Amino acid sequence: MFPHRLTDSRAFEIARALIEGFDRHYRLFSQTNLEAKARFEAADWHGQQRAQRERIEYYDKRVDEAAERLQREFQAGALKMDVWQQVKLHYIGLLVDHKQPELAETFFNSVTTKILHRSYFHNDFIFVRPAVATEYIESDGPGALPTYRAYYPQQATWRSAWRQMVQDFGLTLPFEDLGRDIDDVAGTLEQVLGAFTPRANFQIQVLSSLFFRNKAAYVVGKVINGFQETPFALPILHGREGLVIDTVLHSEDDLLMLFSYARAYFMVHMDVPSAYVQFLRSLMPRKPRAELYSALGLQKQGKNSFYRDLLYHLRHSTDTFRIAPGIKGMVMLVFDLPSFPFVFKVIKDYYPPQKDTTREQIKGKYLLVKTHDRVGRMADTLEYSNVAFPRARFDDELIAELQKFCPSLLEISDRDGDGQIEVIISHVYIERRMIPLNIYLQEATPAQVAAAVVEYGNAIKDLVAANIFPGDMLWKNFGVTRNGKVVFYDYDEIEYITDCNFRRVPPPRNEEDEMSGEIWYSVGPKDVFPETFGPFLLGNPAVRDVFMAHHADLLDPAFWQGHKERILAGHVHDVFPYEPARRFSVRRAAAAEAAATV
Ligand SMILES: Nc1ncnc2c1ncn2[C@@H]1O[C@H](COP(=O)(O)OP(=O)(O)OP(=O)(O)O)[C@@H](O)[C@H]1O
Fold this sequence. Notes:
Helices cover 43% and strands 15% of the residues. It is α+β, with helices and mostly antiparallel strands.
C-alpha cells in the first residue's frame, strides 16, 4: 500500500540522485554512439570495436557510482521501508517527461537492489513492472531528429527518393558511385515488390540514425504500400574509391540475421530507444523486445525485459525443467524448460582433470564473448545472479544433478516464508536454445548433413577471422539455429588466435614413437596442432568427404598461422551478416562474366 502523503524530504533527494546517475549514464552512452559515425568515416575499425567493447562496461560503472553516492550522502542502506516507497513515487514523477523512462526504471532497480535486502524486491519498491508508458514519446529539443523519416515516391521519383534518403544521412565521405548503387537497390526492390499499384499510403519509412557495427553502417526502414510492409536494410561499406551500398536486405529473415543474438551490439544514436524498438518490432514481429534492446546496445534493458518474459512464461506454462538434451558438459551443467526456447547454464563446482580451469577463468571467457564481435557464430549470453525458480517445476533427476555438481551455487528453501519451496541458483547464464550439431547430424538427411558440415567449417572460419580459436571444435559444441546457421556455444576453452601457436606435428624420432600411441613431442599450453583435428571430427565417411572437399584447409597449420599473421598486422576482416552472393559487387561481376561468355 502506497503512502498517501510524501512526508520525507530525503526521498525526493534520493530519487533525484538516482535520475542524475541514470542521465549521466545515458549521456555517455549516447556520446559514444554519436561518435560512431566519425569512426566509421575515418575507417577506424579498431576504434569502433574498442568502443563497442567499452560501452558494455558503462552501465555497471554508473550503477556502482550511484549506489556509492546513495550510501555516502543518504546512508541509503539504513532507510526505512516507507522512505523507499516515497523514493519510488518521486522517481515516477521525475519520469513523466523523460525520453528513456523504461531504461531509467531499470537503472533504479539495478542501484536499489544493490542496497536493499531482497525482501524489498517487489513492486512497492522497485519496478517489477514498468510504471511509465513508452508509447508516443518523441524527442522535441532543438535540432532533435524524429524517430523515422518518411518519403513519398511516385513511379517517376522512386529512384530519386532512395537517393535523397541516403543523402539525408549526411555522410561526409563521397560514394564511389551512388547512382549505380541506387539503381541496384531500387532495381532489386522493384523485383521484390513485383508489379504493384501504389496505394494512397505508398511510402518509404527510415529510422533517422544509422546503425553502426564493425566496418559497416546500416540504413534500416520499410516500404509501405496499402497493407503490405517490406522491411529493408542497406549496408554501407568502404569501397575502393569511396562508400558503397553493398546490397539491399529485404525480408524479415534477412533482418533477423542482421539483428541476430549471435552478433555484436549496434551503435545507434537515439533519444527515444523505445521508439526504435517499436519500429524494429514492426519489421521483426517475432523477435522478443529483450533481444532488440540488446541489439541496440541496451543489454541491461534486454536482460530486465527477458527476465520479465521468463516470469510471465513460468506463470503461463506447466512443464518442468530438465537436463538439456545432448552430451552433458564437463564444466557446465545445462538445463532447459521444453516450452521455452532458452537454456540455463551453471558452472559446475568441479571438473574432470583434463579441464584445467577455474570458475573465474570460465566467467572470463564468457565475458570475452559478450564484449567481442560474435560474427554471427557465438550466441550471446545473459548472466544472472540469484535466480529463483519454483521447486515444483524441476524434475528430480535435474535436482540430483544440481546437488551433485553445483552444491555451492544451490539453495532449495522457502526463503520468503510463503510456503513455496524455491530452487535458487546464485549464478547462471541463459542463452538461446539450438539443436546440438551432433544430434542434428544424427537425424539429418544426407543433403542436410552436407549443408551442416559446410556451415560448420564456415562457422569456424568466421570465428578465425574474428580472432577466436574455439578450443574445442567437436560437433557437440556447436548448435544449429532456426534458420540453419551453425553457432558455437562452448566458451570455456576459447583463446585469441593471436595467443595460440599453430604447429605442425613433428616427425616421429623412431619407430617406437610412431607405434606407441602416445604423444612423442612436447606440447606448450597454447600449442595447437591442426593436423590432429581429423581423427576427432571425421570418423563418419559422409562427413569426412564433405569436410575435405570444402574445409581441408582447417587441418593445415599454415591456414591458422596465416590468419594469425594477418590479425597481428592489424587487418580487420569483413564478416557480412548476409550471404556474400547477395553483394552487388559479386552480382555485377557474375553478370559481366555471364555476358562475356554469351
Ligand atoms: N545454446 C544451447 N542450445 C542447446 N543445447 C545446448 C546449448 N548450450 C549447451 N547445450 C547442451 O549442453 C551441453 C553442454 O554445454 P557446453 O558445451 O556449453 O558445456 P561444457 O561443459 O563447456 O562442455 P565441454 O565438456 O565440451 O567443455 C552441450 O553439449 C549441449 O548438448
